[in-house]
Amino acid sequence: MEIHRLDDYQSWAIRTAETTVVIDPWLIGECVLPGGGKVFRRTHKTPPVSVHSLLGSPVTALMLTAHFGDHFHEETLRMFPRETPVYTTKWGAKQADKLGFKVIKTLVAEEVWGVGPDLRVTTVAPAFPYAHNSLGFFFEDQSGKRVLLETHGAHPGKIPARAQGADVLITAVEAVRFLGVPLTLGESRLVDLILEMKPGILIPTGTDPDQSEGVIPRLLSITGSVKELANTLNGLGAPTLLRELAVDERMFV
Questions:
Q1: How far apart are CA 32 and CA 167, in angstroms?
Q2: Is residue 85 a contact partner of residue 102, using CB atoms and an 8 Å limit?
Q3: How many structural domains are present in the chain?
Q4: Which DSSP symbol is given to 228?
Q5: How far does Cα 23 stand from its chain's mean position?
Q6: pLDDT digits (tens, 9 = 90+) for 78-98
Q7: Is residue 251 part of a domain?
Q8: How far does CA 57 lie from the centroid of its chain?
Q9: Are strands 146-150 and 136-141 parallel, antiparallel or unpaired?
C-alpha cells in the first residue's frame, strides 16, 4: 500500500496495485469558508501536487471526510470527472450532488465495503465534536497492510479491533481548541491512543493550523508540535515511529 501526501495540510492518496483513492483533495486555489476570507482563509505555503498529474492515472474513488471547506474543496473537486465515485457523509453527499457527481455513496460509521478489486474500507466515527458530521477511514489491502486516517481525532472506543497494531495512523498532532472546545485530541489523549492502539508509524496531518487567517483562526488556541510529541513518545519508550511526509512524498507500507 502506498501513502502519498498531496499538500501541506490534509490531502492524501492511498494506492494499491489496482486502486487509487484520493482523500479530501485541496490542490488549487485558496481555502475559504462561508463568510469569506475575513472569516477563514488558508493558502498553501508549499505548492501541492498538480491535480492534472493526479488525474494522469485513473482515480478509483474520492473520499471526503467532511463537508467543511477544508475537506470538501469545491474548486478542486470540479476538476475530477463527474463519474468518479464519491464516498462521504450525508452532508457531503448533498454537496457532491450539487456539483454533478453521478455516483455518490452516503456513509455512516462502522460501514465496511470494497473499493476497487483490492482495497477494503471501514468508516470510523471520530471523537467529539465531530462524531455526528465527520468520518475517518480504515484501509486494508489484500496483503494485510492497514492504515487508519482520521483528520480530527480518533475516538479510542470507535476504532475497529482490526486496527489495533495498524501499520500507520494518520491523524492531527497539534492540540487545537476553539473557544475552549477541543477540535483535536491534543497530546495527552493522543499519547493514550497511541499506547493503546500501538500503530507502527504515526504520520501527522492537518499540520500547522496556525497558518490560517481570519476571525476563526484568531479564536483558536494551538499548542503542541510534532517535535514535542516525538520527545514524549521517546521518553515513554513507545514503539510507534513518528514520521512527517513532505508534499508529494510517498511512503510504502
A1: 34
A2: no
A3: 1
A4: H
A5: 7
A6: 999 999 999 999 999 999 999
A7: no
A8: 21
A9: antiparallel
Residues 7 and 31: their CA atoms lie apart, in Å, by: 12
* Cell numbers found for residue 133: 458530521
Rounded CA gap, 55 and 25, in Å? 12
Which parts of the chain sit beneath pLDDT 50? none
**Domain assignment present for 253:** no
Q: What CATH number is associated with residue 124?
A: 3.60.15.10
What CA–CA distance (Å, rounded) separates 207 from 193?
19
Amino acid (one-letter) located at 109: A
pTM for the model stands at 0.96
Characterize the bridge pairing of strands 241-242 and 201-205: parallel
CA 159 to chain centre: 15
Distance CA 73, CA 53 (A): 18
| 3 state SS of 188 | helix
Predicted local confidence at residue 223, as pLDDT:
94
What type of residue sits at position 245? L
* Nearest CA among 131, 132, 125, 89 for reference residue 110: 125
Specify if 250 maps to a domain.
no
Report the distance separating Cα 119 and Cα 37, nearest Å: 38
Q: How far is CA 76 from CA 23, 52, 66, 81, 135, in A?
A: 12, 10, 15, 11, 20
Q: Give CA–CA dist 40/69, Å, rounded.
A: 10
Q: Which domain holds residue 210?
A: 2-244
Instruction: Return the C-alpha cell found at 65.
Output: 471526510
For residue range 131-162, list pLDDT tens digits in order.
889 999 999 999 999 999 999 888 888 999 99
